[in-house]
Amino acid sequence: MTAVRLDGVATATAIKNELTERIAALKSRGITPGLGTLLVGDDPGSLSYVAGKHRDCAEVGIESIRVDLPATASEQDVRDAIAALNADPRVTGYIVQLPLPAGIDENAMLELIDPAKDADGLHPTNLGRLVLGVEGELSSPLPCTPAGIVELLRRYDVPTSGKHVTVIGRGLTVGRPLGLLLTRKGIDATVTLTHSRTVDLAAEVRRADIVVAAVGVPHLVKADWLKPGAAVLDVGVTRVGMTESGKAKLAGDVDPAVAEVAGHLSPNPGGVGPMTRALLLKNVVDAAERL
Ligand SMILES: Nc1nc2c(c(=O)[nH]1)N[C@@H](CN(C=O)c1ccc(C(=O)N[C@@H](CCC(=O)O)C(=O)O)cc1)CN2
Predict the structure, then answer these.
(1) Would you say 165 is a known binding-site residue?
(2) Cβ–ligand 1 contact at 7 (below 6 Å)
(3) Which architecture characterizes domain 144-274 according to CATH?
(4) Residues 6+ apart with CB under 8 A from 5
(5) Cβ(230)–Cβ(209) below 8 Å
(6) Which positions, given as ranges, span the membrane (predicted)?
(7) What is the pLDDT of residues 4-46, one digit of tens each?
């Protein structure tokens, strides 16, 4: 078997095309959506992700406002930058790029974001609405990677209802909210959320119809762990060196041999990452439409 490729680049392009019409409609009402980003420090991955978010905004006609603080910034500097983004009328939605440098309390910073401007769906009010099951197209933003994963499955007609999903990793941006989203009415998956203390990870993966690997361990998920035909979403990424041309060499969480056993497989790069960025744009447009 050679798995069907879950093409995140093509799907993200389709979503961006859909958004341009909504952005034009907003502008005709005098509303220009604007995404703010707050980056603290110089982590190469975060620098590249933030740069990508600004490129995406330019592509679809969303204004973008970039705030960068040095790695030496204090927690008070970060609080001040968040307060300024909350007050900036050009910013209709914004994100605080994670992870923040050691010593800055991430949860405390996320709580300072105005929930109406939370483009990542990571403010406790918006995560709370996910727990409560508040639904509807414009209800509240969903975290971008979980929403991107569900959208990728939906657009490739991979069924979720009654299916068993094993999620590897319980992080804030992927695993934890994804478990909640997949068990929503209408998606209706049964979810096993695994983590570093899970006793027999291979066995948990083997019973899954859909596997989501979001742990940051290169090539952790092996072909012989899989139920033949399972859909596999490779989310985690590790920088494992440099190419001769000076570009970062990336490794996903899924062994390439999985393509011979899986029914569907998202490439990494080119799978869930571009979907994360596209769903961020959607959150920004949704927030501007709520104004
Ligand atoms: N505030 C947030 N911080 C972080 C989030 C998040 O959703 N909100 N998620 C990740 C990083 N992330 C978004 O910020 C992200 C990761 C990957 C990609 C992406 O497009 N990846 C490309 C490869 C890019 C490369 O060459 O490095 C791909 O998969 O094709 C976009 C965004 C942690 N922090």
Answers:
(1) no
(2) no
(3) 3-Layer(aba) Sandwich (3.40)
(4) 264, 265, 266, 267
(5) yes
(6) none
(7) 999 999 999 999 999 999 999 999 999 999 999 999 999 999 9
